[in-house]
Structure formats: structure tokens, C-alpha cells
Task: inverse folding
């Protein structure tokens, strides 16, 4: 007689309500059901309130005429444009502040962070005051302060003052610094500049491929190749070829000061400058502290080794310290980039037509509050996720690979 237990697998485990795994699943289902019920209740309540006030839901309003003007726009816009166009203008204005702010804040923050570790007592103390003073003043107050200083008649003239016989003179003959903004000369719109941009993007790819080849060559032969200057040449060359092929435009539009208005050129309004100054200076103080802590995280032996072999301090900082410090700097730096982008919503305090400002105007005119808020949430969420993905990719590239 063959034993039935021979060849049989382990006995099956019986599940009961007292099993921790079963309880974990049950509680997750219960919590999910509660969240869904709360969400359904809030949605039903919102729909009932909107119907009671005869407010139609949906995004059809985006195709209707906006009927209001926007002072700053990177694309063509007029009051006859649609609400969707108005929201696009607000989004582009937000992106402009965020991109320029991130670049300028990074440059200032790195400079201040490196200077805070200077052996010069005055430089170290000055940067310490800069960091600790600006970090503890709310960014909204800084934005309002800059806006007040720019539009104050004690500091800057109005455009009409430049027409007076003994009035102020433009900077470099064509730049007007006024209470209504900075008026700058700019190139007139032409498809050739689009060709230059396309060429520049192609040049970026070419410079990246050249850098990879130079690294592989260095690893294989030990011979160095001037990848930086060669890559810069590729960038400039590709942009120049694109500009040349698409017409080589050279016409410049200069600002023309009139008694009632300024025509021509490019304008940087007080609202844009106030938001830009406030966000960049505030964020640069945090970036400086991040850079300082990242540099201090590098073992002192690395610095001493660089000095022992005769490297200059600038070379040690660029080639030895910063590449290692970046592994500590990048994660908190990503948070600061996200904070700067989200803090740009405070621009509504000084009247800058960013996404929040324009969306609030559409909300007040149409009453489509859920849709307007949802659009803002999606835009900021998408922008933040895109920034995080780019920074996380770069952070993964610079991390040490364990064997």
C-alpha cells in the first residue's frame, strides 16, 4: 500500500479573519471605499449646488470669447480671443517666470554658496547675512517690496520724462529704465529665428554625442579632447546654419518713446520684474545653503589631495569638489525648483497675468469654478512632475555605480 502522503506538497494554509495579511487587505478595501464615498458625496453636492444656481458644468466655455485684455503675452492675444487662448497666455507667462527664475536663482545660489566658504572674512560674513536674512522673509513680502520700489517715482522716471530737454537719458542709447518697465531693443519676428532655434536643438544633440565620443576616447586611449569648446562650436554652428538657411534676419526693433505710449522693442513690465526678482533672490538663498552643505559633505581629504598635487583652487572646485557635491545637492535642489514654480502663483498679488491670475478672471466671468481650479491643478501637477522627472534622471546619471 502506497502512502498517500508521499509526493504530496505542503499542507495548504487556511486563511482566517485573524490573519494579519487578510486584515491588511480588508482594511485597505475599507479605507478605499470610505475615500470613494467621500469623493462621491462631495461631487454630488457640488453638482447639486451648481444646478441650484443654474451654473452649467463642462469645458465648453473655453471656446467662447474671453472679452478681457491681458497686458503681457508671448503669443498673439486680444479680447476677442477665446478663454482657452487666455489660459494659454497665462500658462506661458508662468513658464517664462519659472524658467528664467530657475536659471538666475541657480547662478546666484551657486555663486553665493561657494562664496560662503571663502577664506575671506568679509565675503563669508556678507554671504551668511544674505542667506539667513532672505530665507526668513516671506517671498510674498519680497515680491511686493520689489514692485513698490520699481513703481515708486522716487527711484525711476516715467517714459514721458525722457522727452524733456534735460530729462534722463537711455542706457546705451536705446534701453529705457522706467516705472512702467524696462524697454529694450529686440529683433523683429522672423521665421529665421525659428530656424536658429531648430539648429540650436540639433546642436545640443550633436554636442551631447560629441561629449560621449570624447569620453569613450579618453577611456580607451587616455588622450583628452576639448569636448567643451568643440561642443560649443557645434551649438553655435548649427544655430548659425539654421538662421542662415531660413533667411538670416537682422532687422532690430528699437523702443520709441512717445508722449502717451511706447512703441517698438520689447518690454519687461514692473510686475514681471517684481515677481522675477522676488522669486529668484528668495530661492537663491536656499540654493546657496544647499550648495554650501553639499560642498561641506565632500571629505576634506579630497581638497587637500588636490592642493597637494598643485591644482588651482578654481580647478579643485570645478573638477574635484562640485562633481561629488552634486550627488548631495541635486535632491534638495529639485525641491527648490518645484517651490519656485509653485510660488509663481503669488504673482497675482502684484497683478502679473500668470495662470492663476487669468484663471481667476475666467472664473469670475463664467462661474466655472471647478473647471478653472481643475485646470490650474493639472497644469501645476504636470509641470512639477516634468521637473521632477528631469532632475531625477540627471540625479541618476551622476550617482556612483556600484560594482
Result:
Amino acid at each position: 500500500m502506497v502512502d498517500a502522503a508521499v509526493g504530496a506538497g505542503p499542507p495548504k494554509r487556511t486563511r482566517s479573519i485573524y490573519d494579519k495579511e487578510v486584515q491588511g487587505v480588508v482594511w485597505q478595501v475599507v479605507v478605499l471605499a470610505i475615500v470613494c464615498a467621500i469623493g462621491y458625496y462631495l461631487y454630488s453636492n457640488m453638482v447639486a449646488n451648481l444646478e441650484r444656481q443654474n451654473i452649467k458644468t463642462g469645458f465648453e466655455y473655453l471656446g467662447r470669447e474671453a472679452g478681457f485684455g491681458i497686458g503681457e503675452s508671448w503669443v498673439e492675444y486680444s479680447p476677442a480671443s477665446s478663454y482657452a487662448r487666455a489660459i494659454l497666455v497665462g500658462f506661458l507667462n508662468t513658464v517664462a517666470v519659472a524658467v528664467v527664475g530657475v536659471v538666475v536663482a541657480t547662478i546666484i545660489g551657486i555663486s553665493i554658496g561657494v562664496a560662503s566658504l571663502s577664506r575671506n572674512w568679509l565675503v563669508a560674513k556678507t554671504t551668511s547675512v544674505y542667506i539667513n536674512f532672505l530665507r526668513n522673509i516671506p517671498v510674498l513680502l519680497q515680491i511686493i517690496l520689489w514692485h513698490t520700489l520699481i513703481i515708486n517715482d522716487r527711484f525711476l522716471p516715467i517714459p514721458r520724462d525722457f522727452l524733456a530737454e534735460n530729462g534722463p537719458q537711455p542706457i546705451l542709447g536705446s534701453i529705457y529704465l522706467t516705472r512702467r518697465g524696462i524697454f529694450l531693443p529686440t529683433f523683429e519676428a522672423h521665421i529665421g529665428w525659428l530656424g536658429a532655434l531648430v539648429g540650436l536643438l540639433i546642436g545640443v544633440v550633436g554636442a551631447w554625442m560629441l561629449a560621449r565620443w570624447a569620453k569613450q576616447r579618453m577611456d580607451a586611449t587616455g588622450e583628452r579632447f576639448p569636448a567643451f569648446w568643440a561642443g560649443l562650436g557645434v551649438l553655435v554652428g548649427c544655430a548659425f546654419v539654421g538662421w542662415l538657411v531660413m533667411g538670416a534676419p537682422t532687422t532690430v526693433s528699437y523702443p520709441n518713446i512717445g508722449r502717451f505710449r511706447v512703441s517698438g522693442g520689447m518690454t519687461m513690465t514692473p510686475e514681471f520684474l517684481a515677481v522675477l526678482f522676488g522669486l529668484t533672490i528668495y530661492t537663491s538663498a536656499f540654493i546657496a545653503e544647499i550648495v554650501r552643505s553639499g560642498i561641506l559633505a565632500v571629505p576634506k581629504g579630497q581638497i587637500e589631495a588636490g592642493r597637494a598635487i598643485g591644482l588651482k583652487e578654481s580647478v579643485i572646485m570645478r573638477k574635484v569638489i562640485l562633481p561629488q557635491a552634486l550627488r548631495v545637492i541635486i535632491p534638495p535642489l529639485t525641491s527648490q525648483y518645484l517651490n519656485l514654480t509653485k510660488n509663481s502663483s503669488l504673482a497675482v498679488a502684484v497683478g502679473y497675468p500668470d495662470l492663476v491670475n487669468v484663471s481667476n478672471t475666467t472664473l469670475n466671468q463664467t462661474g466655472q469654478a471647478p473647471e478653472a481650479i481643475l485646470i490650474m491643478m493639472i497644469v501645476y501637477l504636470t509641470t512639477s512632475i516634468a521637473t521632477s522627472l528631469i532632475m531625477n534622471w540627471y540625479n541618476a546619471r551622476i550617482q556612483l555605480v556600484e560594482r
User: Anything to note?
Assistant: The mean pLDDT is 84. The CA atoms of residues 276 and 369 lie 28 Å apart. The beta strands are 176-178, 181-184, 186-187, 252-253, 256-257, 262-263, 266-268. The longest strand covers residues 181-184.
